[in-house]
Design goal:
This protein has about 250 residues and is of the alpha+beta class. The protein is built from four helices and 14 strands. Strands 8-7-11-10-9 form a five-stranded antiparallel sheet, with no helix packed on it. A four-stranded antiparallel sheet has the order 3-4-5-6, with no helix packed on it. A hairpin with a 4-residue loop joins strand 5 and strand 6. It is elongated. The two termini are about 20 Å apart.
Length: about 250
């Protein structure tokens, strides 16, 4: 539970808050565009683009421009309409700030608790199924029930390892790669596995086949910890147990 709160708050801070700020930037861009239109300013689209790139500087620049420029024939109705977008933008910015502060505090507190009770590893040790330690989970081989070996693809920049390859060089997209409770690689090429619906949070989810066998999705890679528990590396770079216990 703690690791999910830890991961969730991190995702919100890294992805959710910037997304909210971008939405607020769009409303701010509309506000500047409509205000420029109401004041008969040239280069309305440039002001709108400036708002998307740098909201604070664009607002400061616009205020300065309104102070040094003479306005002739200002469209008051257009100005009032523009203010609505400014208000919405400010509300979203404030909301993003509140969420950012809350997520950072939650991230820090859950991280400390998780490290203290060993449910979160900041620097995990990576082992393969034979108990051999690796410096990187990307070098860990996994095997199917027939003994065939699979490795993550090698990417020079260390990003976007999105496929497994067998010894013959055949590619297996991570979208369909799963691991069984016994630690065997399974490729669901025909998308036949079914969500168990036992969890709402994606990284708690498991899948099952027609015989009731459980599977965990290999989001970015897998490894075994020092206690022999099978772990998943997911897209944010954090890790979790693939199953509650290795049975």
């Amino acid at each position: 539970m703690i690791e999910n709160i830890f991961a969730g708050s991190g995702v919100v801070a890294i992805w959710g808050v910037p997304a909210l700020r971008q939405i607020a930037g769009v409303f701010l861009a509309v506000f500047l565009y409509k205000n420029c239109k109401a004041r008969n300013y040239d280069k309305k689209w440039l002001w709108a683009l400036f708002a998307l790139i740098s909201p604070v500087l664009s607002v400061a620049g616009f205020i300065i421009k309104t102070k040094i420029s003479e306005d002739f024939g200002v469209d008051k109705d257009e100005q009032r309409s523009a203010k609505k977008y400014a208000i919405i933008s400010v509300i979203i910015y404030v909301l993003a700030l509140i969420i950012m502060v809350a997520s950072v505090i939650t991230f820090a507190v859950s991280g400390v608790i998780g490290v203290a009770n060993d449910s979160i590893e900041l620097l995990p040790h990576y082992y393969d199924s034979n108990g051999v330690e690796h410096e990187d989970y990307r070098t860990i081989p996994i095997y199917d029930k027939d003994g065939n070996e699979y490795h993550l693809d090698e990417v020079s920049d260390g990003w976007n390892c999105d496929s497994y390859y067998d010894e013959a060089g055949n590619e297996y997209s991570l979208d369909y790669c799963y691991i069984t409770q016994d630690g065997y690689f399974y490729y669901d090429e025909n998308n036949e596995l079914v969500d168990t619906k036992e969890a709402l949070w994606y990284y708690d989810k498991h899948w099952t086949d027609e015989n009731g066998n459980l599977y965990a999705h290999i989001d970015k890679g897998v490894y075994w910890d020092e206690d022999g528990n099978l772990c998943i590396v997911y897209y944010t770079g954090w890790t979790r147990l693939a199953f509650e216990q290795n049975d």
